[in-house]
User: Fold these one by one.
Assistant:
Number 1:
Amino acid sequence: MSTALAIHGGAGSISAQRLETMRETYESALATALEAGKGVLHDGGPALEAVVAAVCALEDTPCFNAGRGSVLNADGEPEMAASIMVGATLDAGAVANLHRIEHPVLAARAMLEQRHTLLSGSKAEDWLVDNDALSTQAPEWFITDERCSQWESLRARGEVALAHESQTVGAVARDNRGGLAAATSTGGLANQQPGRVPDTAVPGSGTWADDRTIAVSTTGDGDVFLRHGFARRVADLVELEAISPQRACDQALSELKKLGGKGGCLAVGSAGPPVLRMNTPSMFRGLLAEDGRLYVAIGKGEAWHAPGAGWAHPPG
Amino acid sequence: MSTALAIHGGAGSISAQRLETMRETYESALATALEAGKGVLHDGGPALEAVVAAVCALEDTPCFNAGRGSVLNADGEPEMAASIMVGATLDAGAVANLHRIEHPVLAARAMLEQRHTLLSGSKAEDWLVDNDALSTQAPEWFITDERCSQWESLRARGEVALAHESQTVGAVARDNRGGLAAATSTGGLANQQPGRVPDTAVPGSGTWADDRTIAVSTTGDGDVFLRHGFARRVADLVELEAISPQRACDQALSELKKLGGKGGCLAVGSAGPPVLRMNTPSMFRGLLAEDGRLYVAIGKGEAWHAPGAGWAHPPG
């Protein structure tokens, strides 16, 4: 069966100026994450390990809002969440309100083997660290100068960052046995109320995987995705309406927009290439094409291209 | 339009002996909650206020696991969660890991007007108490002798309580303008890992309301309901398959069972009486019939009857 992999680094509306300055950084980060996931799939590894590898790489990159480089909550602290789901069993693991685990997606994966699905807060974080030998870091390791400036500016205005600019990261994959998996990770919203649990931490909203239908990872207005039950909705549209993953994502994004929600999503079904859809002006995104090459794009209408190589190479 | 109201006090498998001893207590508590919700609906009030009134009454009753009478987590503390959803707007509010707010469902309702959907933990609880003038209580107010004994026994055996015995409470309602609402509240699982976020706190899993389809409240194996996206699934089955609320609930419960999940749910659509379904031997439940009378039942096959009046009166 043909493998597939797609990743995102958040939907939003990056300015032309910032895009010009940062394009190489973003594309290089997307390429690194795609390579990590591709390595797993091309070695015959499971979709679960491919999405974990890709999301770990995105968490390591300070330009995205997950793991290192997470935004700061109203207390000036990183506050991270992640979830993961395996399509063969519908097993899911999720974590929220983490402050020190280096790779939140690894905490979510550790939860797959626990007796609870979603854990939140410091006591849960301490318990996961003790039980699963997860690496931790001091707060200053997560915090970048750019996130500090952003936080100070929002704080001075008494505002929370726009949700659909959140730069949440995620991945979906299909392995050579047809197994699907999805993972999503976020630092939440800059200057958010401490204790906010985002859709990223919720199977059925930010993440979904079912081998019979589809794997989904979302990014955008998390609170709207949460009260829309977005990822479960996409899967139900594919299953019950027998429409394509692309049509299902577009319909769900259109419903989301009626609720005031902006964002995007990745999806991969049991056959065919992944789809990457958005109702925002941009989404940092990448995919592994069937020919084994990597492609990236940022602006909504932008053609797929090899990282750093301009816009001339649509995927095969 | 005809009003409708149904409530649950948890699915499970109560022993015949305990049922005999406790029937009057349970039925009286269910009747009190039904009366509270009926009062709102018969005064022409909105479904949202009816489910809040019913769930507040259930939270006040120590025999159910929500608010006062909540079970104790692994730290020996009450740890409560609730969610609420309004079908006209799909607005949802939810809270998890609360330790001192007297009525968690009122905290969930307060969240409807905030800019985030789901908040968790002590900082969020402090913020809600300060902002919304919610009543609080000391831990000992919530804790009953029976919950202490249960906790000590589980702790000695190193076990977490069986999820489908959780006695979570919930309500669904339709008001005389056709508006739907649902609310669910729980103390979680006895001896659970502190920080567990249950399906009860998650719109799309434990609670759902959409005026175009259905309102749903669930009880049972919360972690399985969460990774099944249960309440959103019921709504999608009604909308996309055009099947009855009863068939949708039964199909979703059957899917849940395949994932190892036991439990039950309430649902009410845009017309017709509420449905109350379970795949467990019992579910504490009650409904307001079209003739304005109140009916309750506990065992799965048990006929609807007036509270305290035996099994002789099926609802009109």
Note: Chain A touches chain B through 47 residues (CB under 8 Å).
Number 2:
Amino acid sequence: MAVEKIGFVGLGIMGLPMAGNLLKAGYELVVWNRTTSKANDFAANNPGVSVASSPAEVAEQARVIITIVTDSSDVAQVVLGENGISSGIKEGSVVIDMSTISPAVEKDLNVLLEEKGCSLIDAPVSGGDVGAQAGTLAIMAGGQRTDFEKVLPVFEAMGKTITYCGPVGSGQLTKQCNQILVSMNLNAVCEAISFADNNGLDPDVMISAVSGGAAGSWQLSNLGPKIVEGDYEPGFMIDLMQKDLKLVMETANASSTQVTGASMVHQLFNSAQGKGLGRKGTQALFEAVSGKD
Amino acid sequence: MAVEKIGFVGLGIMGLPMAGNLLKAGYELVVWNRTTSKANDFAANNPGVSVASSPAEVAEQARVIITIVTDSSDVAQVVLGENGISSGIKEGSVVIDMSTISPAVEKDLNVLLEEKGCSLIDAPVSGGDVGAQAGTLAIMAGGQRTDFEKVLPVFEAMGKTITYCGPVGSGQLTKQCNQILVSMNLNAVCEAISFADNNGLDPDVMISAVSGGAAGSWQLSNLGPKIVEGDYEPGFMIDLMQKDLKLVMETANASSTQVTGASMVHQLFNSAQGKGLGRKGTQALFEAVSGKD
């Protein structure tokens, strides 16, 4: 299908720039946002955007509908709730949920959408608001491969590394693996810097000595120097990481998977939240690891 | 000083190719090895190599003496033992210890060498035997900066990333930070692959989806695919990593530094050793993390 008009539900810190990149790529948009003023502002500033009165109306006007909201319950609400997407959706439509939520919820939603001759792709992203603005997000997609291929140009307007990960839920599972790796690698950086500090070793020198080899990681190169400077400005906030790690723990529990390291970092982030650092960048984990503040 | 002849003590799996690279760079060598036949073989095949009868004789014949042996006790033995380096060393000489041992021992040895008008550089390496052969080792050096600058051409014959880390012991401390990062990042990779496996996600797809972003690490890109294939051939053996992590724990204890994550991986490697995997590559940590075998 040639997609010309896209439905877009959720114009938050991520959704707004992503919608902007779809416009730049030449798509028309019909949008809905819980806070209506944001949708109205977006439409006022951008020809090619119309505002719907409900998610149902979005679904009536577009065959591809993107949702990017906060929690599993928010996605369930905009899809299944009163005047939700499922009450307006036309047969053959595809819902792309780009929120980071439970893979089990995505599977359940897909079953309900399939009863209406529609389908769901779960496609969470990584790369933060900077990646959303630049159109360089990593997009991890789960669903039917044929659906994925149909909407690939839509993804390409918003992201750079776009991966088909498997059946519905696989995008979310891949995002969860991403967060396991991110948080544990960050914990490693915090321990190494604390260890250097406590033993009179210049942490900046240590970082430059080891980051090109087997110890290297994105977290070390990008967040290590910020930790050394005490710069806790958020790229990605601890509160959001904790939301994601809770999803990791749910999946680990449901599949009897031991994730001891990720669980430990989850607890250390709890400690950081207890120190009032929830809205700081994830690198403020250092305060919980080092015991310094 | 223009270094022409270098003393070299320890022609093991690392030392032998490193000595070979010094020869290629035009240095003469006087060597000693605990197993004499190895030294004799090396000299027989390489003009420019002479074999000394003891570490003391090595020190009598060269102003720069490299040691690369196994443990703190081995270094102490070749430097301070009967017919050790310190009994033959000439004033103004520099001992470069490239073993991975205790930073406290390096400091003690330096004090004793300074009494003889000499000094020590601790310069452990990373990059394994492959890096030793290719001359691409990372070299992390601690000692007086003037000494470091004098012997830099010697390092450049053996390594690629060469970093002056600070006073004596700083090379070892940097290597310990390196091993904290390596082992914790590897643990992250093991958990993510186990998590993917147990939830029906293709681990290879997961790795390719996330390795270019914030979850990326050397361990993920290089050891992740080996874990998925079940390839446990050693790049770096678990037994050797455990030796290094014991040193990390000593330093952490001495400096009251909490390294909870590194300590946990140390225990998981114990479990892998208990399964008979000590001589496998570090990636066999996966067996202890996943509970599979």
Note: Residues 170-198 of chain A form the longest helix (29 residues).
